[in-house]
Amino acid sequence: MISPLAALVSADRWLLLKINRDWTSPSLDAVMPVITDLHKIPWFAYGVAPAALALWLWKGRRRALKVLVVAALAVGAGDQFAHRVIKPWAARPRPERAGEPVKMRAPVGGAYGFPSNHAANMGAAAAVLSVAYPGGAFAFAAAAAVVGYSRIYVGAHYPGDVLAGFALGAGIGWPWAVLMLGGAGAGVKKKRRG
Q1: pTM, to two decimals
Q2: What is the pLDDT of residues 171-188, one digit of tens each?
Q3: Of 169, 156, 182, 168, which Cα lies nearest the Cα of 16?
Q4: Is 51 part of a structural domain of the chain?
Q5: How many domains is the chain built from?
Q6: CA atoms of 132 and 184, how far apart (whole Å)
Q7: HSE on the CB side for 30, CA within 13 Å?
Q8: What contacts 24+ positions apart, CB below 8 Å, involve 3-8?
């Protein structure tokens, strides 16, 4: 009889290889490395992202600034906790370093992959933004999911690494946002009853 842990590890490996080697296409081979490292691409990092941030802060004023600070703190806390505490403790090697026959489509940093910092950061940001702007919750979750999927597709992480990163990020981001921003939907202006 297979233990539950061994079954999870086997399913994690199976899904990694399906996403990385079987469920592929030339279009995804071109797009997924860009998505996974969008923050490192100069036109995005120094053009699109600052312009979008400036527009959001200009339109949202003080509220947007508060949400940005809360999101930055949640992302920073999740990122550091994943990188400095959990990764060294869990010491789970990335797929390539564990000998998995993955096709590497993007460079990876560090020996350990559990949990995914990309997923933790996106999970924290999505959680904070969902509390502040509940109408956009699906879009925020979808953006996080696409980044998480890209990490598996390029061979950087097992699916379990990504799911753990999402759980960590959301687990830090959601309560922090509710505490600091005044609860779910606090960013939505309520209509006066007349």
Answers
A1: 0.88
A2: 999 999 999 887 655 545
A3: 156
A4: yes
A5: 1
A6: 7
A7: 2
A8: 8/160
